[in-house]
Amino acid sequence: MRCDRKMKERSSEIIGRKIIQSILEGDFSINEHLQPERDLATLFSVGRPTIREALQRLERDGWITIRKGMPAIVNDYWKQGNLMTIVDILQYHEEIPDELIKYMLELRISLSPTYVKDAIVHNRVKVIALFVPLDELSDDAGSYADFDWNLQLGIAKLSPNPIFLLILNSFKDIYQKMAEKYFGSQNHRKQSYQYYTELLNAILKGEVEETEALTRKMMETSLILWSEKVKGGD
């Protein structure tokens, strides 16, 4: 019984992945109906309970909307998805899509200045300690990706608002890949190092408003730099 349940769960996950892949590859378009459960069961040679389980998982992760008595409909996953949708998208790409990095950089413009300011107001000394590895930072993408992740995560932990940390934790498994792609540019590393240095100096001086302004400016600059790189720049 337990073995059968595990096999059923594995089957539903496999089916779910196949449907996601079909959506990403355009075999199923946004707002298009999926096949009825009975047809999907025939297609995948499984029972309808397994199909139902797969569809429920897809709805939970923002890919489809299940409608009673009607076939499920494909969502606009960029608008109706959630954090798990991003994880699913990345599983089907050997490299992080440039578009996703752009969206993440846009998100950081909204989030980072606030949690940086909050953390400095409430835990200034502990934030300063996060910059200790900066002196030994190697000029390569992996080192910068590690430093940036640890810095952002550390600052978010020191913010009194736990939502910021929950959001960052959701991207833990994919942040490194995105950051390494971004920091593959020497110019991006140079700009970020300058930001880290200026941010630390502002924190040491206790210039809280300046730290918020510096962070917002750097997040906006990062988006511009990435957009230029995608268009063919460095």
TrEMBL record:
Lineage: superkingdom: Bacteria
Keyword Magnesium listed: no
Domain HTH gntR-type: 9-77
SMART domains documented for this protein: HTH_GNTR (SM00345)
PANTHER family referenced in this protein's UniProt entry, alphabetically: FATTY ACID METABOLISM REGULATOR PROTEIN, TRANSCRIPTIONAL REGULATOR, GNTR FAMILY
PROSITE patterns: HTH_GNTR
Protein name (record): GntR family transcriptional regulator
One Pfam family, short name: GntR
Record-linked InterPro entries: FadR_C (IPR028374), TF_FadR/GntR_C (IPR008920), Tscrpt_reg_HTH_GntR (IPR000524), WH-like_DNA-bd_sf (IPR036388), WH_DNA-bd_sf (IPR036390)
